[in-house]
């Protein structure tokens, strides 16, 4: 029996193509997914990114689904949030083939139920894994069919309906698509808006020839920062490989914290629904719940990961949720994450006033932060326990383990240390009153982690 524990993660499936993932396995995964969702749907919508392996794997998955008697609606090339739009608007379960920001040799599958409801380890992924490991039962009935449907224009129109930019002043915006799916979706979404787009790396290329499609790594936005300054642009946007995350830089080329974007968008959503619930994950700035509460909203803290955020949004009726990884979730978008919609909110807020983006976002940036720092470790659990023991022995320290370790220090500084769900890494996020306090605390923790 195959062992899929290495590729079935907390909220998606991901692995190295040819070693961990191949067409035969993906066909079985498609069959197992079909069995999971048969009681609720007779069709599945499938999309894929621009990776070299994606079309073949998506086709294999479709073959598995149809082998169980279900039909497939193929939307072809798509961003992940475009697939969520298709799942929501068509009310169908979905499968998106992408490994997001991972290197070219990887691929994966993000799954959802009808209405873009999440499928994670506890909501179907473990069942799919078990079905494949034990052998997918054959279906004796009639095979399903595959039809193709282009939803790009409908997706773009839906986003533009949610954010009104008709009253915006003209803006010049540099967009770095990183050779990912943003190069496919941005031209259609921004068409007709009062925005001059300066494109960077819009050519679809799953080998990522210019830089990794991971805008959270500072080295991957260097080109964007330079271009914003060179063009005298009002803002810069960087999308990850499957274009569900969006990272923002201001007119100076300086990064805008995703926590500041979360606070900005939260306030705009609270203006539409006063008193609403806003989700923030546990590595966003503590400024986010402070600002939400100051504007009459109800902040709710949750663990990291899209399936967890979406489940909490469904439970609480939240109108918006933000993660420090630049994932942004909207109730009006089936509680799914869409960096594109967040970007439109930022540009609308900018276009509604005369000042620069740096001035607009300054009020949402209250503390200094380290950004996410990754450490490759042999034993994630042992390193985390060493940190817990070291800090737990100090006076006035509070520790919780909602997701990894979150350690609150006397004086307001805090950090979170958690294992990656997709790589052999520990991820550290530190926040404190100023840059020097962040530096000192970061060094303190890393000395133990990397010991």
Put the structure in a nutshell.
The chain has helices at residues 23-37, 54-67, 80-90, 121-134, 152-162, 182-189, 222-231, 258-272, 287-294, 306-316, 339-351, 357-362, 380-392, 435-449; strands spanning 13-16, 43-48, 71-77, 94-97, 106-113, 117-118, 146-148, 171-176, 195-200, 235-239, 246-249, 255-256, 277-281, 298-302, 320-322, 328-330, 336-337, 368-369, 373-376, 398-400, 405-408, 414-419, 425-432. The chain is of the alpha/beta class. Helix 1 (23-37) crosses helix 2 and helix 8 packs parallel to helix 9 (287-294).
Describe this protein's structure.
The chain is α/β, with parallel strands linked by helices. The protein folds into 3 domains: 138 residues, Alpha-D-Glucose-1,6-Bisphosphate, subunit A, domain 3 (Alpha-D-Glucose-1,6-Bisphosphate, Chain A, domain 3), CATH 3.40.120; 103 residues, Alpha-D-Glucose-1,6-Bisphosphate, Chain A, domain 3 (3-Layer(aba) Sandwich), CATH 3.40.120; 82 residues, Alpha-D-phosphohexomutase, C-terminal domain (TATA-Binding Protein), CATH 3.30.310.50. The chain is built from 14 helices and 23 strands. Strands 1, 2, 3, 4, 5, 6 and 7 form a 7-stranded mixed beta sheet that branches. Strands 18, 19, 20, 21, 22 and 23 form a 6-stranded antiparallel beta sheet that branches. It has a 5-stranded mixed beta sheet with strand order 9-8-10-11-12, sandwiched between helices. A hairpin with a 6-residue loop joins strand 10 and strand 11. The chain is globular and about 65 Å long. This is Phosphomannomutase. One of its GO terms (molecular function) is phosphomannomutase activity. InterPro entries: A-D-PHexomutase_a/b/a-I, A-D-PHexomutase_a/b/a-I/II/III, A-D-PHexomutase_a/b/a-II, A-D-PHexomutase_a/b/a-III, A-D-PHexomutase_C, A-D-PHexomutase_C_sf, Alpha-D-phosphohexomutase_SF. Keywords: Isomerase, Magnesium, Metal-binding, Phosphoprotein.
């Amino acid at each position: 029996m195959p062992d899929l524990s290495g590729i079935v993660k907390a909220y998606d499936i991901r692995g190295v193509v040819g070693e961990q993932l191949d067409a035969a396995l993906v066909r079985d995964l498609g069959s197992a997914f079909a069995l999971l969702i048969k009681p609720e749907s007779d069709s599945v919508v499938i999309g894929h990114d621009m990776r070299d392996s994606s079309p073949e794997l998506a086709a294999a998955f479709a073959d598995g689904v149809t082998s169980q008697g279900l039909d497939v609606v193929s939307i072809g090339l798509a961003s992940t949030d475009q697939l969520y739009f298709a799942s929501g608007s068509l009310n169908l379960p979905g499968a998106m083939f992408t490994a997001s920001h991972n290197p070219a040799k990887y691929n994966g599958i993000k799954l959802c139920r009808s209405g873009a409801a999440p499928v994670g380890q506890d909501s179907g992924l473990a069942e799919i894994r078990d079905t494949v490991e034990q052998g997918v039962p054959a279906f004796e009935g009639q095979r399903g069919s595959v039809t193709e449907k282009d939803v790009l224009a409908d997706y773009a129109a839906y986003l533009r309906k949610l954010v009104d930019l008709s009253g915006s002043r003209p803006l010049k915006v540099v967009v770095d698509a990183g050779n990912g799916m943003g190069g496919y979706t941005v031209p259609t979404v921004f068409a007709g808006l009062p925005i001059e787009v300066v494109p960077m790396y819009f050519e679809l290329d799953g080998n990522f020839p210019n830089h990794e499609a991971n805008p959270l790594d500072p080295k991957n936005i260097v080109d964007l920062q330079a271009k914003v300054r060179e063009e005298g642009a009002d803002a810069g946007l960087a999308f990850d490989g499957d274009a569900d995350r969006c990272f923002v830089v201001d007119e100076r080329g300086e990064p805008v914290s995703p926590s500041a974007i979360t606070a900005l968008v939260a306030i705009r959503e609270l203006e539409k629904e006063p008193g609403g619930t806003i989700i923030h994950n546990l590595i966003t700035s503590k400024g986010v719940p402070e600002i939400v509460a100051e504007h009459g909203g109800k902040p709710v803290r949750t663990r990291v990961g899209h399936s967890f955020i979406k489940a909490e949004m469904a439970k609480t009726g939240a109108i918006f949720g933000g993660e420090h990884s630049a994932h942004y979730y909207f109730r009006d978008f089936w509680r799914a994450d869409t960096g594109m919609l967040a970007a439109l909110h930022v540009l609308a807020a900018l276009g509604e006033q005369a000042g620069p983006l740096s001035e607009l976002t300054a009020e949402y940036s209250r503390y200094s932060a380290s950004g996410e720092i990754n450490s490759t470790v042999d034993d994630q659990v042992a390193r985390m326990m060493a940190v817990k023991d070291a800090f737990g022995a100090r006076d006035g320290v509070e520790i919780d383990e909602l997701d990894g370790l979150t350690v609150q220090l006397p004086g307001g500084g805090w950090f979170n240390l958690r294992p990656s769900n997709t790589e052999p890494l520990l991820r550290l996020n530190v926040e404190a009153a100023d840059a020097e306090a962040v530096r000192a605390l970061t060094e303190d923790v890393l000395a133990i982690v990397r010991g």
